[in-house]
Amino acid sequence: MKYLIRAIKYFFYFAIVTTALVAVLVFIGAVEGNIDAIFEGGYTALWKMAVFFAAVAAVYPSLAFIKRDITIDGGFEAHKDEIVEYMKERRYELESSTENGLSFRIKGVAGKLAKMNEDRITVTPTLEGAQMEGLRKDIIRLAMGLESRLTPQKD
Length: 155
Fold this sequence. Notes:
single chain; alpha+beta; five-stranded antiparallel sheet; 6 helices; elongated
């Protein structure tokens, strides 16, 4: 169900961004205000664009959201406070803490809007450390930094 909601959300996101770009182009005079002049085929091009947006939106959540395992020496429970502190330094606030893991949300309305309210990062314990789940670019950045901080340097 979460996947379907994300796909629908991205469909509307793509449609709104495209509409805004076309509106800006009309406003600055780069294109005429007539739909037949903007798109080849006029109004019939709109359903083709909608099909394209739907196809991209159907695939995008599987590419944009990942799970990544991180190795933590000493285990998840031993470093729980350090994980919370690390996330706090990166502008993420603790949303919930349970025996199943930690959940973080980004601080500020601008950050939430930029990520279309898909800003939740979950950290769950595993045998070798933890698993992080969320937006791909955030998870890669946060997981690498967290692993670097919690893994002792070997000379």
